Amino acid sequence: MSLSLLAKNPLFGVCPDGRGIYIFGLEIYYYALCIVAGMLVAATLSALLMKRRNMSPDFIFLLFIVCIPTAIVGARLFSCLTDENLGIARFFDFRNGGMSITGGVIGGVGAGYVVCRIKKVNFLRAADCVVVNILIAQAMGRWGNFFNAEVYGGVVENPALQWFPFAVPISNLHGYFGVKSFSDPNATWHYAFFFYEMLFNLIGWALLFTFMWYRKKKPNGLATCLYFVWYGAVRTVMEPLRDSEFILNKGGVPWSHLFSILMVGLGIAACMLLMIFNFIQEGSFVGSKKGDPCGITNYLTPYKNDEPYFSKINMFGSKYPPRPSKEELKKIKQQQKEKKKSGSPPEKPTDKENDGDGDKE
Questions:
Q1: 189/181 Cα distance (integer angstroms)
Q2: Could you give the CA distance from residue 205 to residue 137 in angstroms, rounded to a whole number?
Q3: Three-class SS string for 224-272?
Q4: For 249-271, what is each residue's pLDDT tens digit?
Q5: Close Cβ partners of 156 (under 8 Å, ≥ 6 residues apart)
Q6: Could you tell me the end-to-end alpha-carbon distance of the chain, in angstroms, rounded to an integer?
Q7: Helices 101-119 + 123-131 axis angle, to 10
Q8: pLDDT of res. 357
Q9: How far apart are CA 26 and CA 1, in angstroms?
């Protein structure tokens, strides 16, 4: 770190404008901290949901490593292509804003599909455990808009309604953001649309997470489709009400609003198609009349030699043996290594092993 940077900024402290903090002289915005915190919470909840739904929770680490960077690239690229104040030439100018949640979702989900195809994991089953938790990451990320003084609506004229979080003060003074805006007596109060969207995202996450925690019956993918319906509906309502400064309308086309409507339409269509295909295959729109009604009976893992063990969290945990002690695990791994060296033929797959692109029920 250069001496000039250390001289200009303190090693540790709060930024004077209220937008972030200093760590070792480097300014880190609250906006970034909110996004990172949301990612970590979503990853943790996704791992928990995978364990609950008879999957290897370790798979979330691979998805996290691959999908987070692609989501960031997608978010930035979407903004650069649809914001008239940006352009592809400013793609790497991250610190001056411009990250579209819509682009991030497209990039992250697309990368997740590729990873599942390579690892031969049922994409819809994995997506159900991950995509619903994007809502809580988005809810936490919205607080970054508060600290950046952005994503708000029209002016609130009635003094009786000028209170937070119904409305938020926006200061015209240089260097007044977030909490610091409250100290400006001449700040203009606006509808706090970032807070409204955050609240609806939390409600949607709670509903979908509860749905996934207790639902066993196939088809897989319903929760993923319902996410797009819910989030698309929230954005469809909120987007036109925002201040025009925060609407992506390059070329006169309200791109974010358009994609929000598409999310709703495609999500509903996908839900219907999933149930129709399930009816054709299983004789029932949900579940099965021909065999196993569950879409999560088989243990799903992308890793070799990953055996499931009993867990109270796992809805099918009772069908698996107790976890061996560390000494027993070492012996099992040693035996597996010896079999590889001796060239012994691999054991026949059991119902506990990877069910590939589809569940064998």
A1: 10
A2: 10
A3: HHHHHHHHHHHHHHHHHHCCHHHCCCHHHCCHHHHHHHHHHHHHHHHHH
A4: 777 777 888 889 999 999 999 99
A5: 162, 166, 167, 189, 190, 191
A6: 58
A7: 140
A8: 40
A9: 9
CA distance 158 to 148: 24
Tell me, letter by letter, the H, E, C secondary structure of 64-88.
HHHHHHHHHHHHHHHHHHHCCCCCH
User: CA 332 → CA 9, 174, 304, 322, 323, distances in Å?
Assistant: 55, 65, 13, 14, 12
Amino acid at 224: T
Which pairing describes strands 26-29 and 188-191: parallel, antiparallel, or unpaired? Answer: unpaired
Specify which residues 28 forms β-bridges with: 21
Angstrom distance (rounded) from CA 172 to CA 75:
28
User: For residue 52, what pLDDT is reported?
Assistant: 97
Which position has the token pair 């609806």? 200
Give, as one character, the DSSP assignment of residue 23: E
User: Beta strands 26-29 and 167-170: pairing type?
Assistant: unpaired
DSSP class of residue 186? Answer: T
Q: How large is the angle between the packed helices 134-148 and 30-52, nearest 10 degrees?
A: 170
Backbone angles phi, psi at 252, to 5 degrees: 80, 5
Structure tokens at 135: 């809502």
Residue numbers of the chain with a pLDDT score lower than 50: 1-7, 348-361
The DSSP annotation for 90-121 comes to GTT-GGG----HHHHHHHHHHHHHHHHHHHT-
Q: The whole model's pTM is what?
A: 0.85
Which residues have CB under 8 Å from 23's CB, separation 6+?
11, 12
Q: Evaluate the omega torsion of the peptide bond into residue 322 and state whether it is cis, within 30 degrees of 0.
A: no
Q: Is the peptide bond before 165 cis (omega within 30 degrees of 0)?
A: yes
State the Cα angle at 172 between 168 and 175, rounded to 5°: 95
Q: How many CA atoms lie within 13 A of 152 on its CB side?
A: 25
What is the rounded radius of gyration, in angstroms, for the C-alpha atoms of the chain?
Answer: 24
* pLDDT for the residue numbered 343: 67
* Sequence-separated (6 or more) residues with CB below 8 Å from residue 62: 115, 119, 302
Q: Are strands 12-14 and 26-29 parallel, antiparallel or unpaired?
A: unpaired
Q: Are 45 and 209 in contact (CB under 8 A)?
A: yes
